């Protein structure tokens, strides 16, 4: 009888620790979200340039997470570098590459903490695709709907197009069949 009581106490204690850990984790996520919201509303506006980006091979909801090295320029301060790990599709950026200039908001108490608001120059997907030829890159062939659908699906999987853009473009491609 005593062994059963001890085993029961251990099980209850173990589940209690699991529940406490889960509650702490949820509270931590909520606190981080609130910090980002506050920073978006009250942070110091600045500009950052992507110096380096490296895939971490981590995926969150099929979106890739990258390690970024940003050069931040805040008026009245010398440029400095910040490391950031993030999904770039959260930034309203269609094409991410070294040299991209971003609008950011900085924490006034810790200039190493920032949130990315989006690109300095808005990116239009249609203009980007039409500009591929000028860069010597091939745009998707309009006569090859299968390749176009495959490219569109890849872009959707990587978060390069919104669900609305995906549905609209998919309908256009299917209409050509």
Report on the architecture of this protein.
The protein is an alpha+beta fold and 177 residues long. The protein has three domains: 1-42; 43-119, OB fold (Dihydrolipoamide Acetyltransferase, E2P), CATH 2.40.50; 125-175, no CATH class. It is built from four helices and five strands. It has helices at residues 2-42, 125-130, 145-157, 163-175; strands spanning 44-60, 63-73, 80-86, 101-107, 110-119. The protein has a five-stranded antiparallel β-sheet with strand order 3-2-1-4-5. It is flat and about 75 Å long. 10% of the residues are buried. Mean pLDDT is 80; it is low at 134-139.
Characteristic key phrases:
alpha+beta; OB fold (Dihydrolipoamide Acetyltransferase, E2P); 3 domains; 177 residues; 41% helix; 5-stranded antiparallel β-sheet
How many individual helices?
4
Major β-sheet profile: 5 strands, antiparallel
CATH topology of the largest domain: OB fold (Dihydrolipoamide Acetyltransferase, E2P)
Structural class by secondary-structure content: alpha+beta
Which second-level CATH architecture of the largest domain applies? Beta Barrel
How many separate domains make up the residues?
3
User: Low-confidence parts lasting 5 or more residues at pLDDT below 50?
Assistant: 134-139
CA distance, first residue to last residue: 75 Å
Transmembrane segments: 6-30
Protein name: SHOCT domain-containing protein
Organism: Corallococcus terminator
Keywords: Membrane, Transmembrane, Transmembrane helix
């Amino acid at each position: 009888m005593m062994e059963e009581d001890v085993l029961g106490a251990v099980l209850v204690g173990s589940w209690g620790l699991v529940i406490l850990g889960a509650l702490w984790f949820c509270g931590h996520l909520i606190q981080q979200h609130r910090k980002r919201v506050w920073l978006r509303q009250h942070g110091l506006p600045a500009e950052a340039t992507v110096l380096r980006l490296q895939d971490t091979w981590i995926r969150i909801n099929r979106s890739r997470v990258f390690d970024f090295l940003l050069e931040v320029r805040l008026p009245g301060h010398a440029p400095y570098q910040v490391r950031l790990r993030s999904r770039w599709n959260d930034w309203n950026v269609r094409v991410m590459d070294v040299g991209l200039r971003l609008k950011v908001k900085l924490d006034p108490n810790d200039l190493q903490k920032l949130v990315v608001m989006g690109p300095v120059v808005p990116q239009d997907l249609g203009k980007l695709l039409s500009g591929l030829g000028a860069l010597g890159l091939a745009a998707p062939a309009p006569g090859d709907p299968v390749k176009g659908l495959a490219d569109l699906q890849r872009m959707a999987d990587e978060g390069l197009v919104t669900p609305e853009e995906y549905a609209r473009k998919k309908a256009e491609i299917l209409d050509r069949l």
